[in-house]
Amino acid sequence: MAHPDARTSLGGQLGTVKVAVVIIATILTGFTLYALRRMLEPFVMALFLLIMVDGVARLLNARVPGFPKKAALPVAIGAIVLVFALTIWITADNAHALALQAPTYTAHINTLLSNGAQRLGLNVTPTLADLIEKLNPSRFAGVLAEAVSHFAEAAVFVLIYLGFLVASRQGFAAKTSQLFGSAEDRAEAQRVFFRVRRGVEQYIWVQTLVGVLITALSAVLMTLTGLSHIPFWCLIIFMANYIPAVGAAIGVLFPALFGLVEVDGVTRAIVLLVGLEAIHFLVSHVVQPRMQGKSLNVDPIVVLLALAFWSAVWGVTGAFLSTPLTVLAMAILAEFKGTRPLAVLLSGDGRPDADMAD
């Protein structure tokens, strides 16, 4: 019979080995996700869009009396495509208008630089051309071209993946019955799927409503301060809101900074900046927590860490998908005894599958 001290020592060694295995597995997983980012990014984004399409289709069937069941999916796909087309049109139209007004903005920036130099007592007054020359934008031309090329490539693959996912969704039920032999295993897999779907849909729903509220209030303030290109800035504020924790705060900075260039007088620009940030703070810290409640059950510090991790791995795409991917990871980790402690750490109340039990 083994000595109790020996068993304790062996148990401690096994615990250390488990921790080391988890750390190594996490590092390898992160490296794999980064190495395969060009392939995985569009697929995960397409899967995310499929959940959105499916949610809109089910909403039409549930909330619109007499709506044809077979027409719900095509209408949902058309609505998503229309939103993306409208986004591209607003961006292109306002980019063209901003380019035409570039000389006016350049003169205004030079005036601001001249006033700032006089207040600071500088002998030489800088101009925008001098700043651009010192920054040497040609150094970033290759990076910008690569980013645009990657975005266009990813957009094409997202649409391709989405089309194939929509076409193959009818066979998901048959595949599930073959993957899981017993009825208990199939029910468990279905519960996990429903939990992930509900978490993602709830996150999209809350972020959309919060984004609409912040955007509407910001549009009123931008109109009162005389800012132009309001639809374009509203689009940026709304889209940035889907990046958790910091997205909305960053999104409202763009029109505020542009206000320094366009709006006459620094006072109005400061009012615009303070007002936009106040709107974001009020909605994000007072209204949003009441709407979201405990639906996601993800610890706030985990949201920040997930944002940092996925942004480092997949860039902007990872920032948008960080919270849904965390919900997915928590639901899967909670199903296995060995990884359940990780799911408990990710959860907000220590019960990662409490909603499934309810």
| DSSP E strands, number | 0
General shape: globular
Largest sheet: none
> What is the SS-derived class?
mainly alpha
Distance between the termini: 45 Å
Radius of gyration: 25 Å
> Roughly what is the average pLDDT, rounded to an integer?
75
| Share in helix | over 70%
The tally of helices reads 15
Give the percentage of residues in beta strands: under 5%
Unreliable sequence segments: none
**How many domains comprise the coordinates?**
3
Order of helix and strand elements from N to C terminus: HHHHHHHHHHHHHHH
Main traits of this protein?
single chain, 358 residues, mainly alpha, 3 domains, 15 helices, globular
State the gist of this model:
The protein is mainly alpha-helical. It contains 15 helices and no strands.
Q: How would you describe what is shown here?
A:
The chain is globular, with a radius of gyration of 25 Å. With 358 residues, it is an all-alpha fold. The protein has helices at residues 4-35, 37-63, 69-100, 102-120, 128-135, 138-168, 172-179, 183-224, 230-240, 247-251, 253-262, 266-292, 300-333, 340-346, 354-357. It folds into three domains: 41-60 and 70-91 and 122-179, no CATH class; 184-294, no CATH class; 296-358, no CATH class.
How do the helices and strands line up, and which of them pair or pack?
Blueprint: H1 4-35, H2 37-63, H3 69-100, H4 102-120, H5 128-135, H6 138-168, H7 172-179, H8 183-224, H9 230-240, H10 247-251, H11 253-262, H12 266-292, H13 300-333, H14 340-346, H15 354-357
